[in-house]
Write a structure and sequence with these properties.
alpha+beta, Heat Shock Protein 90, 3 domains, 5-stranded mixed sheet, rod-shaped
């Protein structure tokens, strides 16, 4: 797939979308997991905070604050153990910070923010802790009434209680969750990739069907595109069918114009031939012969121009199919009865190769022009080789015609087939035969080239598309499926 491929563009867009979606999903899941764990840890901290509040006691005699039964967890007793509690005396100012604290804090205190706490309200903070730890802190305030103190005031005291836990455990759990999630994300990516491939394939299937339909129209096996395409493609199909209908109408019109031209010229040419007969009867045979030659030349030119017009208008029957052997036999049978053909030795090799994708009349015109040109210039011999090949992924039938005539200078070979060109005026002709042959070959996607034959004269090589052989199922067999052809008895032409 190249960058101009619609399939490639859809695949790249899907890949980017899947990657972005998976990244967003992974980040969202990690964040949700982290928040869930943090809520769970916060809930445990709140429970420990309530235990701490229940354990705080003020002595009745001197008002000393103590914690009778601190929360039970080994980490509270381990320095920098990751779990901490602290009791502050709000009324003592800075002197009351860290009034009581767990052994895990060692010689440090938690610097709680100065926020207003309502009775029973719990606040959550993220604070730095001992040893560079990041702590998740839950705090609340309680008011306790004590016995008369040293000043005998007997007033209630407000204490701030805080319980904290190191977030490192949360981070480790989050990272472990992300690592465990990666294989599953890979599986999801694979499933989404396969689903995308199937979706692209199914989505572009109508375009592939459209391509096959257009190919069938171009190959002549169908006249219109079918109407069972999806709604998104149907407008394009309708436009193509409308274009085909307009083309067919123009072909019919061009065929009518061509027929009118033929009928319009036949009458003057017939009159010219009659005038030539009258001149001959009046004792002027030279002028009569000139008029007959002129009429013959004009008639041949009109016929060939009609052939060109028919090929350009695409008015040949569909599907096009013509048997090469039959066409060769017909043309050679005719040429051998002419003065030029009767004097020559015709050598034909490998004729049974099947059919070409041309109408029979156009194949006859093509072979007739080429063989007539060879017969006109050959001295004693004309070689014809026919072979079937499978080149470039398609089946072809090649016809090579060589004569032993004077040939053409190498620097003039590229000019052969130009309309009306005659490189030698020694023999009669209009110079249209090779030009028409080139037009016919080009009209059906074939190739023609000219070279020097081993037997001395001109070699013409023609490659034409092969027509599939019909089968019982209505399909066709390619050249690769046919029986091996007999080997040619001639050496290949240069």
């Amino acid at each position: 797939m190249n960058r101009n491929s619609l399939r490639a563009r859809l695949a790249v867009a899907a890949l980017l979308s899947i990657t972005l979606a998976l990244l967003v999903a992974a980040a969202s899941l990690v964040i949700l997991f982290e928040r869930h764990v943090e809520r769970r840890i916060g809930s445990e901290l709140t429970s420990r905070l309530n235990q701490l509040a229940a354990a705080v006691h003020i002595a009745p005699d001197d008002g000393a604050v103590s914690v009778e039964q601190p929360p039970q967890d080994p980490r509270f007793g381990t320095p920098l153990g990751g779990l901490y509690w602290q009791v502050d005396d709000s009324e003592a100012g800075s002197a009351g910070v860290g009034l009581l604290r767990s052994r895990s804090l060692w010689d440090t205190t938690l610097a709680l923010p100065q926020d207003a706490l309502a009775a029973g309200e719990v606040h959550t903070h993220r604070l730095p802790g001992p040893g560079g730890q990041a702590l998740l802190v839950r705090e609340r305030s309680i008011r306790l009434g004590g016995a008369p103190s040293a000043d005998a005031s007997g007033a209630a005291r407000t204490l701030r209680l805080a319980v904290a836990e190191d977030r490192a455990e949360l981070v480790r759990a989050r990272n472990a969750f992300a690592a465990d999630m990666l294989p599953y994300l890979g599986v999801i990516a694979l499933v989404l990739g396969l689903a995308t491939w199937a979706q692209i394939r199914a989505g572009l299937a109508p375009l592939e069907a459209l391509r096959k339909g257009v190919y069938a129209v171009r190959a002549g096996t169908a006249e219109r595109l079918p109407e069972h395409y999806p709604d998104e493609v149907q407008p394009l199909v309708a436009e193509v069918n409308a274009l085909l209908a307009a083309r067919e109408a123009s072909i019919v019109q061009a065929r009518s114009w061509t027929a009118d031209l033929a009928h319009g010229l036949k009458t003057p040419l017939s009159a010219l031939a009659a005038d030539a007969d009258r001149l001959r009867q009046q004792g002027n045979p030279a002028l009569a012969n000139d008029l007959e030659q002129l009429a013959l030349h004009m008639r041949r030119r009109v016929d060939r121009e009609l052939i060109r017009a028919r090929m350009r208008s695409g008015s040949h029957a569909r599907p096009a199919r013509a048997d090469v052997s039959e066409a060769l036999n017909r043309v050679l049978g005719t040429l051998k009865r002419t003065p030029d053909g009767a004097r020559l030795a015709w050598r034909v090799a490998g004729p049974n190769v099947g059919a070409v994708a041309l109408p029979a009349e156009d194949l006859l015109e093509l072979l007739g022009n080429l063989l007539e040109n060879a017969a006109k210039w050959a001295r004693r011999q004309v070689d014809v080789q026919v072979a079937a090949t499978a080149a470039g992924g398609g089946d072809e039938i090649r016809v090579a015609i060589a004569d032993d005539g004077p040939g053409i200078a190498p620097d003039q070979l590229h000019r052969l087939g130009q309309r009306g060109l005659r490189l030698d005026e020694q023999k009669a002709g209009s110079g249209l035969g090779l030009a028409i042959a080139r037009d016919i070959v080009a009209a059906y996607g074939g190739e023609i080239d000219f070279g020097h034959a081993e037997i001395g004269g001109l070699a013409v090589r023609v490659c034409l598309p092969a027509a599939p052989e019909p089968t019982a199922e209505g399909g066709g067999r390619s050249l690769r499926e046919r029986a091996e052809l007999p080997r040619s008895a001639l050496r290949p032409l240069r």
